[in-house]
Amino acid sequence: MELRQLRYFARVVELGSMGRAAQDLGVVTSALSQQLSRLEGELGTRLLQRSAAGARATDAGLAFYRQAQLALRHADDAVQAARQARLSGHVSVGLAPSTSAVLALPFMAAMRERYPEVRLRLVESLSGNLAAMLDARRIDVAVLFEAAPARRWRVLPLAVERLFLIGLRDLPAMRALLERPRVRMARLAEVPLVLPSFSHGLRAIVDAAFARLQIQPRIVLEVDGLAVLMDAVRAGIGATVQPGAATARLPQDAVARIELSDRDARRPNLLASLAEDELSPAALAARVVLRDVAAECVAAGHWPGATLDPT
């Protein structure tokens, strides 16, 4: 018997419908039905009377429901107690500037709420620098855009960001493209671009996409700092190709943002950390919190152009 089965059963009883319960729980009806059938088989009794009108608890089901509610409350209390335990220690977490613009404040707030005794050190730097710091054990956890497989890290998929063409609305090259919400990178051949240098992971993604199209982009300026790069874009020097998070710290409507529709115009975000046996309890907790915060930001629409990585 699993807690998941108890939750499924309780929700069906409360809603009186397998379909509504499945929708509420975020599972398909067939999977819900299968789990409840297994539960009934294990108990050796019928818990639900199913009909075209819905599902209602049998006498045995009502008796089981009362005890299941109690068990679920105890389980929830146990989870809450574990989360609120006064975990202490320190943890160092690295975020790239664009990622930091979206995740840093909600992550810091969540850590203070869940683990007030943990001392957090947040490092903002380029993804390549963060990888080197992680390799040198100078930070415990980082959000990276690529990870070398030979390194002894724990790497989890976090999110995938769509890339955008970002620039002033009155930039001539932008005006010609603003009629559509999405454009292909092939149409950027004549757009003056402000991009990071070759040492930046995003530049590698952009260059590879242009190379596949056999296009030589018109790069007018290279800037490795996100803040200065976006200042150059706002000054009208050129447009840039960046994830939507690059605009998170700008005033609303300061620049226009056009999604690039090419399949490879994407940037993966990976949650990387030291190996499990090297992580302190504080670092393990921070990794969980960071993943939770990322999911919440995506769900709330606070991370422009990002979707959770399903893998």
Tell me what you see in this structure.
- By secondary structure, the chain is an alpha/beta fold.
- It folds into 3 domains: 3-84, Winged helix-like DNA-binding domain superfamily/Winged helix DNA-binding domain (Arc Repressor Mutant, subunit A), CATH 1.10.10; 89-159 and 267-308, Periplasmic binding protein-like II (D-Maltodextrin-Binding Protein, domain 2); 161-266, Periplasmic binding protein-like II (D-Maltodextrin-Binding Protein, domain 2).
- It has 10 helices and 13 strands.
- It has helices at residues 3-15, 18-25, 29-43, 59-84, 97-114, 127-135, 172-175, 201-212, 226-234, 281-299; strands at 48-51, 54-57, 89-95, 118-124, 141-144, 153-167, 182-183, 192-195, 218-222, 240-243, 256-260, 266-274, 306-308.
- Strands 3, 4, 5, 6, 7, 10, 11, 12 and 13 form a 9-stranded mixed β-sheet that branches. A two-stranded antiparallel ribbon has the order 1-2.
- A hairpin with a 2-residue loop joins strand 1 and strand 2.
- The mean pLDDT is 88.
Low-pLDDT runs = none
Our measurement of the CA-to-CA distance between the termini, rounded to an integer number of angstroms, reads 27 Å
Radius of gyration equals: 25 Å
Q: Supply the number of helical segments.
A: 10
CATH architecture of the largest domain: 3-Layer(aba) Sandwich
Secondary structure: helix percent: 40-55%
Number of domains: 3
Overall geometry: globular
Instruction: Say what the CATH topology of the largest domain is.
Output: D-Maltodextrin-Binding Protein, domain 2
Order of helices and strands: HHHEEHEHEHEEHEEHEHEEEHE
The structure class reads alpha/beta
| CATH classification class of the largest domain | Alpha Beta
Quick check: average pLDDT?
88
- Number of strand elements: 13
Main β sheet profile: 9 strands, mixed
Strand content: 15-25%
Oligomer: single chain
